[in-house]
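User: Please predict structures.

Assistant: First:
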Amino acid sequence: MMPVSRFLNRLSRDPRHDTLLASPAFQFTLVILLALSFYFSKLGGHGLATWDDCYYAEKAKEILQTGDWLTMRYNREPIFDNPPFYMWLAALSFKIFGVTDYAAKFPSALMGVLTVALTFVLGRRWFDAWTGFLAAFVLATTPTFNKYARHAMLDVTLTFFVTLALFSFVLALEKDRRYFLLWGTAIAISVLIKSVLGLFPLFISLAYLLLCKNFKTFVSPYFCSGIVIAFALGGFWYLHQWLLFGEDFLRVHFGWLILQRGFQMQPEPWYAHLSYLKDLLIYYWPWLPLLLLGSFYMLKNAKAREPIPLLLMLWLAGYLFILSVMQARRLWYLMPIFPAAAIVAAHALHRILSPRAKLIFAQAVLALLVVSNIAVNATPLQIESEREKDIRMLAPYVRHFGNAGARVLGFRKDYHSLNNALLFYSDHAAAPIMQSSEELRTAMQAAHTVLCVMELSSWQALQNEMPGIFVIKQTEKLVLIANRALDASAVKTWR
């Protein structure tokens, strides 16, 4: 078989090869195949992280169990922290693929690919074809974006709709005002994914219009219709929940989640609010130098009120500023800036590379696609660690005996770190979580069957104090005990 390097070398001497590498259609196909490879290869079979994948996946699973698509539930109780859109996508995925970790992550991986595609289109339309190709490649290989596209979390899906909203905004200004209707719809969906954080594209759009002194757009019928769509379509779920649950919904969603958790947690020193910048400095490699250089170029043009550079700078700065004043700071909250960052970095890379170097770069991307697919899909190489392996091993026993009426407890575990995964994999939560050995001994003396999940080290310290307790299943880190001997021969294990 001809080595890949020799094959590519032979192609590089063929003029038709240069034409192919410079073709936007070929470049688009190349980055989409690369994104599909990165985000979908071996996506399932390794479990879900208890934070936050299992938490969202459990809500999606309970949509199918209850048939209620509006009120999210956790352990069969209404819960008001997250809007429902990602859970809707995951529930649809479960209907198609079954309730698996692959199905839970499928919507995020799909939205990751679509965001790469949209970034290509943005870069090409706003600058040129090479910028589109380079921007899509930068986004597809951004480590943080790559990582969370393979998680059952909200942020990559949010990123797609934020990007769609801002692209529609530019199309409405430059091409056809009717795109404001798509702009409003994308904002509405963003709100249904991440609550008030979904309003960022609206704020960025308004800031752009004000800085450009484009006041006539504010009275455009289509712009006003887009605003109405954003608040009506995005707000219907919130209205429904308020009418159904009243103050409980307002207190949890807006009082605790938005105000208390978002802005009023423990006061921190001023420099802690710059942690997003620190995270970018640490994790946005290898593209950070190009982002800084591209930002320098963009800022010069933004000061001259050039529309696209100004919008890109508002996109980046708006998120960095608002999120940096929040108390709840996580790297993945920055996800919606990555398409803009990719375009800015690609703009700098485009200016640096010579025409010949760009062709070589495209050839290297083709080689990366071939080599990475062979390395990942044709070998036993594992690209993800096992998630919640111990819980997945205990879950069949908890499900089997829990369905037969056993009470399930926990011992000295954080409620959600244990139960997010246990609920998803077994349909039973360990509740309450006992803290003292006296409480546990009393609970295990009940006349009915009682199960308890605990750390193996905790059981080793307690077992001499608790005679008559049976070990049902032991894993590397956890143990499931019961207050009576149980026949586990009929339990279907996870493998």
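Second:
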Amino acid sequence: MPQTLRKLVGTVALIALVVLYALVATAVAVARLADAPAWAHLLYFLATGLLWVVPAMLVVRWMLRPDER
């Protein structure tokens, strides 16, 4: 697959990843943290706010891989 096509597919995948991840993280927070103290909310959103970077890094690494000859 040429790099330009990988970049297009990767961009769409990153947008979908961020949207779905945000929806799932928020739904879990609403379901589990409704009566939790503020520090639990802070820790949860700090962890989930950083955790999406791992799969995003993998997608970006795949997108930037040079073309095979």
